[in-house]
């Protein structure tokens, strides 16, 4: 059996994507999931407007897989209330994709896109804020003064990063 050759340009982009995924932080991977969900949901919209239902179906299944990944990646032991809310949101998005798939409702897809874009922007702001905090902390020569745990132990009040 002859194996089909992958076009060189596609191979290069696949290698880039693989490297990007393998070197990404967990926060960046989550952002990439949002990007993919948005891209595939836009594909669904395009499929409906162009009456290309195969394109729409392909985009729907891929977007649903990403939403399911976001849903199953939630860790309630870290932030239970947030996870409950995100679980409800991701479940709503998933169900909306299922409904849109059976009705070809572009307005429903537009609602899903609006929610996904908002979630992506929120996550991006979180990542940027964390990066600023990390950069600020990395520039500190001395850690902030902390009250000693033992009243007579004032020598432990500060700590040098340099040793």
**Class derived from helix and strand content:** mainly alpha
Average pLDDT reading: 84
In whole angstroms, the N-to-C terminal distance is 63 Å
Poorly predicted runs are 1-7, 156-163
Main β sheet profile: none
The CATH homologous superfamily of the domain at 24-128 is called: Flagellar protein FliS
Quickly name the level 1 CATH class of the domain at 24-128: Mainly Alpha
Rough outline: elongated
Report the portion of residues in β strands: under 5%
CATH architecture of the domain at 24-128: Up-down Bundle
Q: Radius of gyration from the CA trace?
A: 23 Å
| Oligomer category | single chain
Verbal overview:
By secondary structure, the protein is an all-alpha fold. The protein has a domain at 24-128: Flagellar protein FliS (Four Helix Bundle (Hemerythrin (Met), subunit A)), CATH 1.20.120.340. Helix content is 72%, strand content 0%. Helix 2 runs antiparallel to helix 5. The termini are far apart. Residues 1-7 and 156-163 have low confidence and may be disordered.
Question: Could you provide a short overview of the structure?
Answer:
The chain contains five helices and no strands. The chain is mainly α.
SSE arrangement:
Blueprint: H1 8-23, H2 26-49, H3 53-72, H4 80-103, H5 106-138
Helix pairs in contact: 2-3, 2-5, 3-4, 4-5
Keywords:
163 residues; mainly alpha; elongated; disordered C terminus
